[in-house]
Design brief:
By secondary structure, the protein is mainly α. The chain contains 45 helices and nine strands. Strands 2-3-4-1-5 form a five-stranded parallel sheet, with helices on both faces. Strands 6-7 form a two-stranded antiparallel ribbon. It has a two-stranded antiparallel sheet with strand order 8-9.
């Protein structure tokens, strides 16, 4: 845990432990001695905490000793090490005490008076503390010789009235909890945040997802975090083997404990480690094949090392499991795997094949081919990550380079299907290194094009997808062609209505288990009028992702859902989902996901009048979209900025931004976004008196309405005609727009009402104008669309209603007081889900859910959980009577 060899120890977290150590030192300064035992597994950070205490004890005289394996059987070796710096003070002791102490330390005659020896050491330390407080530090108590331990235990019980602090570090089970009155400070793994800091120091390039895996795997053990993070890579991925190789320091720290185990217990532990989570009958059968008696098997189950639970047997801690497997003799490991293969021969073909492969000592095509079949069976059952692990092992056993490359490519595609995109990329690169990208393209199921589509050149991605679709298996070929169609959309190629419908998943039934890559593109779903259907598909799919995976797709899907929720007026939900998507993107990587989340939040900031935030968020999205010319996101960013300008009363800025989206040569050009923003562009043009460009945008809307029969496009076309029409024609066109406009798009509907009300006021039809303006104002006020509500309010006043309309949204409104995650928790709790169920869906802890609920009840003025069912989440958090 120190930064580097020879430096002062650097602690991450450990606030509780530091407080306890500081307290012991503070008591000693006040003349109140005490002792404390720090207990924890090897590598957990006990030594670093002792170094911390020593650093804090600059005003103390510090004496230290550490147990050494080679001296465990040497009587008083530990005591000699501790007292070496002050041997010259022994002569100051009373004669009898000095004699017995010299004898114990090998400096004089022998003496067996243990009581007098303890008194001598206590006296020596007490007199030493007469000058300044004394700190006694004992590390690795479990390796200290027993006579020294007995003597120091005697001393620790008698320092209460002395300015002496004694700190001892020990492994679990190496001291008697019942007979040891000394307070115990359990040292556990680092908390997640501190563990991630430690990993980042040693391997700053390790992704958040793999860092989280490492923290979970090591349970926050600092030594394990340091040793495993340096060379961590695909071995930490979900697609990796479940066995990890420990570093030398970590392995050595466990060796002593493992060497003390009886042979039968070591064999049973190795069986459990080789087949983690095996049922008890499997372990017992394998142990019997290896000659372990039933009596020894029962005795082993009572050891601290093994944990029988729910009919299964596991090794107590993941690091101990790794140490058991890693430190075992290779021949014994193969023997154990062979026994497990025999046990599974008739019950589980996949596990049988895996254990057979683990017995191989050199490349073997027969075994590799057997693993191919096992991988395909696992994949067919939905176990994509298991298939990736099996294919990786098959590649390692492949004598032929081309066969190894083929299997690595298959592993890459399986990892992709399982949501482990980081491993998929690494495995594909390994395959390409062996055989070239063209050769492994089909085996990888078009994975090269999939990566290019998400991160690079869209045109090249389409070429690769179509190339690999020609030779890929049927189960991949259709998907690749579909994704090539999505690439064509991103490039603004002309698409038919049926092609747009396919991208929007219009023909997919709700409840269908769609893979994430087949879910609708939000902008296309909105363009064809299918946002409600698309929203249902996303909600169902996201629910499955939360409980079944792949979680790595969850962030992107939440960003897409947020875009749909903006359209249907669920702006607070959209913000909550976008924020969660951002958080998940930190864990699972990917650049497109945060860009979409930034744009979604940018749209809401723009519509609510926070232009500075909208600009900042779209800057972040453009940082991704501009370099790779990802047109859809760039177009969304420009449209977002145009809406902010339009709401701020700057139609000239809005028109220029929207005209840019229409320019084919510009990186922000995207044809669907041109259509979606056409009515905004036309409104800006009319307000500038530029009627010809407004008519051009009208033609765009009319053509799209004819192509897709989308009601919103017809309604937008009608309101643009109304803006361009003579006074005699305008009213009928506004009424037509209101008649056909989708009611589930409240912001757009309110804008038609606003424009109609403005026209009616100009026609001096004040009563009719006020009716439309008040309706529009109410919707804007509910959504928090401040600029638009203020515009409606000005029109209301000009129409003759001078009563106070009121603030658009007060700062105390619950919808603005609740944080994004509190809003999510409130909605889920209102459905009756428990804290644990909510935590599972939001990937947070049940304790965090409980804290959020306490804040929610306070902010909304609710008595408890039951009151949430009476909250109208759609209309300003009003209570339903």
């Amino acid at each position: 845990m120190p930064q580097h060899t020879g430096s002062a120890a650097r602690l991450y977290g450990r606030e509780r432990e530091r407080e306890e150590l500081d307290r012991v030192l503070s008591l000693a300064r006040d003349g109140k001695g005490s002792a404390m035992i720090l207990v924890g597994e090897p590598g957990i950070g006990k030594t670093t905490l002792l170094r911390y205490a020593t650093a804090q004890a600059a005003d103390f005289r510090v004496l230290t000793c550490r147990g050494v394996p080679s001296e465990t059987e040497l009587a008083f070796a530990g005591l000699h090490q501790l007292l070496w710096p002050i041997l010259d003070r022994i002569d100051e002791l009373p004669s009898a005490q000095a004699t017995v102490l010299r004898g114990a330390l090998g400096l004089g005659g022998h003496s067996g008076d243990r009581l007098l020896l303890g008194v001598a050491v206590l006296t020596l330390l007490s007199e030493l503390a007469g000058d300044r407080p004394v700190l006694v530090v004992i590390d690795d108590l479990q390796l200290l010789d027993q006579p020294s331990r007995n003597c120091l235990r005697f001393v620790s019980r008698r320092i209460a009235e002395e300015p002496i602090a004694m700190l001892v570090a020990a492994h679990p089970g190496t001291y008697s909890e019942t007979g040891e009155p000394t307070p115990v400070l359990p040292i556990r793994g680092l908390d997640s945040a501190s563990a991630e800091q430690l990993v980042a120091e040693h391997n700053p390039r390790l992704s958040r997802a793999r860092t989280s895996t490492l923290v979970r795997l090591t349970d926050g053990n600092p030594l394990a975090l340091m040793e495993l993070s340096r060379d961590a890579g695909v071995t930490l991925s979900p697609a990796a083997s479940s066995h990890i190789a420990l570093g030398p320091r970590l392995r050595a720290s466990f060796d002593a404990r493992l060497r003390e185990l009886p042979e039968s217990e070591r064999i049973i532990a190795l069986i459990a480690a080789a087949d983690d989570g095996a049922d008890a009958r499997t372990v017992a059968h394998a142990a019997e094949l290896l000659g372990v008696t039933a009596e020894n098997f029962s005795a082993a189950l009572n050891s601290e090392l093994l944990r029988p639970a729910d009919g299964r047997i596991t090794v107590d801690h993941p690091l101990i499991r790794a140490a058991v497997y890693d430190s075992a003799d290779p021949e014994l490991r193969r023997t154990v795997h062979a026994a497990l293969a025999r046990v599974y021969a008739d019950t589980d073909r996949e596990r049988h094949d895996w254990h057979v492969a683990a017995t191989a000592t050199e490349p073997d095509e027969t075994i590799a081919a057997m693993l191919d079949d096992a991988a395909e069976r696992a994949w067919a059952r939905g176990g994509a990550l298991a298939a990736a692990r099996i294919y990786r092992r098959a590649a390692a056993l492949s004598p032929d380079t081309a066969a190894a490359a083929h299997r690595l490519a298959r592993a890459a595609r399986a990892a992709w299907d399982g949501g482990d995109t980081e491993s998929a990329r690494e495995l594909l690169e390994a395959a390409e290194d062996r055989a070239g990208a063209d050769v492994v393209g089909a085996a990888g199921g078009g994975l090269t094009g999939l990566f290019e589509l998400g991160q690079g050149d869209t045109a090249r991605a389409r070429r690769l997808l179509l190339r690999d679709a020609e030779s890929a298996e049927p189960r991949f070929a259709d998907e690749l062609r579909h994704l090539a169609l999505r690439a064509s959309w991103a490039l603004s190629d002309p698409l038919t209505a049926s092609q747009l419908g396919a991208i929007a998943a219009r023909t997919v039934d709700s409840g269908t288990d769609l893979p994430p890559s087949r879910l609708p593109i939000a902008e296309v779903a909105i363009a064809v009028g299918g946002e409600a259907h698309a929203l249902r598909l996303y909600r169902e799919s996201i629910e499955r992702m939360r409980t079944e995976g792949p979680v790595t797709w969850l962030g992107y899907s939440l960003g897409q859902q947020a875009m749909l929720e903006i359209t249907v007026g669920r702006w607070d939900d959209a913000i909550a989902n976008a924020i969660e998507g951002l958080r998940l993107s930190e864990d699972f990587g990917g650049r497109q996901t945060p860009a979409y989340c930034y744009v979604a939040m940018g749209f809401i900031a723009a519509l609510r009048g926070d232009e500075a935030t909208a600009l900042d968020l779209t800057d972040r999205a453009l940082a991704f979209a501009r370099p790779i010319r990802f047109h859809p996101l760039a177009a969304d960013a420009y449209w977002c900025r145009a809406l902010a300008a339009l709401g701020a009363g700057r139609p000239d800025d809005a028109f220029e931004l929207l005209r840019t989206i229409r320019a084919p040569e510009h990186f922000a050009h995207q044809s669907t976004i041109v259509v979606l923003s056409a009515a905004d562009a036309a409104e800006a043009a009319v307000r500038l008196g530029r009627f010809e460009p407004a008519r051009e945008y009208l033609e765009i809307l009319t053509a799209h309405a004819g192509l897709t029969t989308a009601a919103w496009a017809s309604a937008d076309a009608a309101r643009v005609r109304a803006l361009l029409a003579t006074d005699a024609e305008a009213e009928a066109l506004f009424l037509e727009a209101l008649r056909i406009a989708p009611a589930q798009r409240p912001f757009t509907y309110a804008r038609i009402q606003l424009q109609f009300g403005e026209w009616l006021r100009r026609m001096r039809r004040r009563r009719a104008a006020l009716e439309q303006l008040h309706l529009a104002h109410n919707t804007f006020e509910r959504l928090g669309a401040l600029p638009w509500a203020e515009r409606a309010e000005r029109e209301i006043v000009m129409a003759g209603d001078r009563t106070t309309v009121g603030a658009v949204r007060s700062d105390s409104d619950p919808a603005t007081v609740l944080t994004a995650q509190e809003l999510q928790v409130a909605r889920l709790a209102a459905t009756g889900l428990t804290n644990r169920e909510i935590a599972a869906r939001l990937l947070i802890s049940p304790r965090t859910v409980g804290n959020h609920l306490s804040h929610i009840f306070s902010k909304l003025g609710l008595g408890g959980r039951g009151d949430l069912v009476n909250v109208d989440f759609e209309n300003g958090f009003r209570l339903i009577p």
